[in-house]
Model the fold of this input.
Amino acid sequence: MKDIRSTQSTEYAIRNSHSRIRKKKPMLRQIIRHYLPLALVITAFCGLAYLLSQQVLRLGANEPQIQMAPDAAARLSAGEALASVVPAGTLDVGRSLAPFTIAYDEQGNVLAATGLLHGQPPPLPPGVLDYVRQNGEDRISWQPEPGVRYAAVAERVTGAQPGFVLVARSLRETEDRIGVMGQLAGAAWLATMLASLVLVVLVELVLGRERK
Done:
């Protein structure tokens, strides 16, 4: 008789355990079903916010070059002396954040520079001056060597002595800010994902109790 009771008790416990598992599975599916779309929206929103902030910071790095380069080109095109527009300088553009100017002749040879990298004007990427010759202006991210990047604006010089003028400044501070924005976006994404998961679970628990 005791064996029968024990067997029945065991069977009841197994059925009760299976019943609890079956109840948990629909709740888990509901949580996943409601959380996944929310997670996708949060991920897309955080990614878009980061990309927008990155572009705003990068475009802002073109200032004041977008004002300085056309002004210098206009002065040179009007016949103003090169020395007064691009005074010779020894600014170390590998370290400094200040803008610097380089003037080129029609063949792309450096005429004057206000900043130097390792004692020489930084080498310009091939094709930049050809593009400016055809289009009048170019705005580029310029990396003369690893770890050194500039936001540069190049303008066409016309008049009696045609050529080109380029104004650039370091992207170091801008890239540091972009890195900080990336960290903030990642932290905001993680916090929002966790908070939304907790919210979905709580809502499902409350609804589950109401269904009972």
Summary: Strands lie at 91-92, 100-105, 110-113, 115-116, 137-145, 148-157, 163-170. The longest helix spans residues 2-60. The chain has two domains: 18-58+176-211, 64-170. The first strand starts at residue 91 and ends at 92.
